Amino acid sequence: MTQSPTRRGFLAGVAATAAATGSAAAAPSDDGPPAVDPSGPGRPAALQDDGGDTGIESLLDDLVESSLEGRTASGATVAVVADGEVALTKGYGVADRESERPVDASTPFRVGSVSKPVVATALMARIRRGDIDLDEPVATYLGAGLDEAVGSATLADLVTHRAGYEMSNEGLWITDPDDLRPLPEALRRWRHARVRPPGEAPAYSNYGYAVAGGVLGAVADAPFHEAVAADLLDPVGMTASSFRQPLPESLAESHATGYGPGSVYADGEFPYLGLGPAGALSTTAEDMARFVQLHLNDGVVDGEQVLPPETVAACQRQWATAHERLPGMAFGFVESDYGDVRTLRHDGGTPSFYSHLLLVPERGLGLFIAYNGADGGAAAGDVLEGFRSELLPDPESDSDPESNSGADGGTLSSDGRPTRADDLGGTYRSLRRSWAWHDRVTTTLQAGTVEVSVADDGALVTTGGSVTRRWVEVEPLVFERVDGSERLAFDTGADGETIEYLHRGANPTTAYGRVEGADRLSLHAALTVVSLLGLLSAVFGWPAATAVGWYRSGDDAAADSRRWTDRPAALARTVAAGAAVAVLAFPVAALVHLAAAPFAVLSAPPLTFAALFALPILGLAGTLAAVGFAVRSWTDGYWGPIGRVHYALVAASLAVACWLLWYWNLLVPPL
């Protein structure tokens, strides 16, 4: 890898300062962050578009080309805006391996959840015009059938991921375009459950953004993709961008091919989103450069005032946070602190594309990057780190020295232990998971988990995966990492007393909830093992014991049909063994189905998958019968004492297995 130019070298090599953008910074108000002097110190100079190589182009060439090495992604597209001017739009690699068509700045890419700030900006334009009242429940703007699903959630709750929805795959990935539904119908058909009151805790929700998009369509009295185009894409000049599914033919033909695990999606044919506003946008680096300009130029794009400055400022101000000492959510953007510099960002991932959008409003700097591979997240991470480290101040040198007043980087409480130290310890799991849909098991296993404890010296210790970190309390229930790079905070639940949530400053979109009782995975693992042993002893143990008995006795019992109809004991074992076979066969069949059609199974299950639920239903019926036989075995004297105990254990194992299937929403078919 070529040595990256230093920030000092980059600034020294800039050709010249570009002309003023023609718009003044917004005055300080309640609608946005304080104004920033465009000529203030530390702001990177703009670049002349002279067609030649520039410092920023060299920097991005180095970073992006290196990031593509060894990746599934074969190409990337980039846009950089500095001082409100487009400094770079460029493509790297190939859009399609087979044809070796190169990526350029006009190649469309699927951007996933980077769609969300685009949707939020269009909504804010409507809000500022008075078409939408932020204090009104969004059910006010939607048709019948969504009142119960939406409840009292407001648009701000939806956009800041605080409406209380679960994070489910239901209705998300659609492989057959004939299965796509108009957005109002999709919202009613694939309703995600509300599992907590609006505003209680953040939990990332694609369904919430789909509902927000539904509000935009309802207010505009048009299909969502037409409404967002008319309200934002067309005025900004994003003519090569679209939420339409399937894509218009012109975009589909020029679209980058997506490369997912073992799959290739060409000509705009990739898994569609049943909840389109959450991530169905396809766009180009050139178009996203205009969107970035909009946000860095107070609504001005190429000299034209597309949106009022107040609208842009309202999008960029903080709308929600778990604590004033933590980053939070702007309107459609995620806040992050890089040292003392506030940044706004959003990333987006699909099965075959990845994108990232970064804005630094106070520096007039923005970056958009997209890859045509599912592993683009790691590649983009390398580029973003290099971009920030070269063009923004060193976070360590610019951090507030007052924020680290303790010996370990913070201030311990007076007795050496954190506030409410005895209440903090335990397991916390990300709320970004499903509760009511049958993907509860997959989303829970993928959800981040943090173990929290308090060390003898009073430091808070967190362990997530193989990473252990130490934190010190800087104010009650607020902690800072010993290196000062991140904060976290604890919060109470609905009762206002019990510590229920952990909030990480690095991820303000989703809190971690305390895990207790029946929700502990260790309990489920133990119950699964015990139940499995009991079921296997019935499926294999009883036939083996019967065969041995027949062999020893020489009795041709297999030919005596009355043995199975006249002896309740034999029938009891047959019922229990049959139930065990059904219960054991279901997860195997479901996993095979999932491997064959993962998107369909998780999002919009086909009838073949629903038919598999005949197995657990039969297993449940057999379990109820087995419990009855277990009771009768003692009253009627089936077998000896050991045989009766064993049968009772098998019946108990069946009951546990059915409870596990019920807990994970796998007992009855998804409806």
Topology record:
Layout: H1 7-13, H2 55-67, E1 75-82, E2 85-96, E3 101-102, E4 109-110, H3 115-128, H4 147-150, H5 155-159, E5 173-174, H6 183-189, H7 206-220, H8 224-236, H9 249-254, E6 258-260, E7 263-265, E8 272-273, E9 282-283, H10 285-296, E10 300-301, E11 304-305, H11 309-316, E12 334-338, E13 341-349, E14 354-360, E15 365-371, H12 376-391, H13 395-398, H14 421-424, E16 426-430, H15 440-446, E17 449-454, E18 460-464, E19 467-475, E20 478-481, E21 487-492, E22 499-504, E23 512-515, H16 521-553, H17 562-566, H18 568-596, H19 598-603, H20 607-611, H21 614-635, H22 641-663
Antiparallel strand pairs: 1-2, 1-15, 2-3, 4-9, 5-8, 6-7, 10-11, 12-13, 13-14, 14-15, 16-17, 16-23, 17-18, 18-19, 19-20, 20-21, 21-22, 22-23
Helix pairs in contact: 2-12, 3-7, 3-11, 7-8, 16-18, 16-22, 18-21, 18-22, 21-22
Transmembrane segments: 525-551, 571-595, 607-631, 643-664
Keywords: Membrane, Transmembrane, Transmembrane helix
Pfam families: Beta-lactamase
Question: Could you explain the architecture of this structure?
Answer:
Residues 60-376 form the Beta-lactamase-related domain. Residues 21-42 have a biased composition (Low complexity). It is a single chain. With 671 residues, the protein is an alpha+beta fold. It has 3 domains: 7-59 and 96-394, Beta-lactamase (3-Layer(aba) Sandwich); 407-515, Lipocalin (Beta Barrel); 521-663, no CATH class. 38% of the residues lie in helices and 17% in strands. The longest helix is centred in the C-terminal third of the chain and has 33 residues, at 521-553. It is globular, with a radius of gyration of 29 Å. The strands form 6 sheets. It has an 8-stranded antiparallel β-barrel. Strands 3-2-1-15-14-13-12 form a 7-stranded antiparallel beta sheet, sandwiched between helices. Strands 4-9 form a two-stranded antiparallel sheet. The two termini are 53 Å apart.
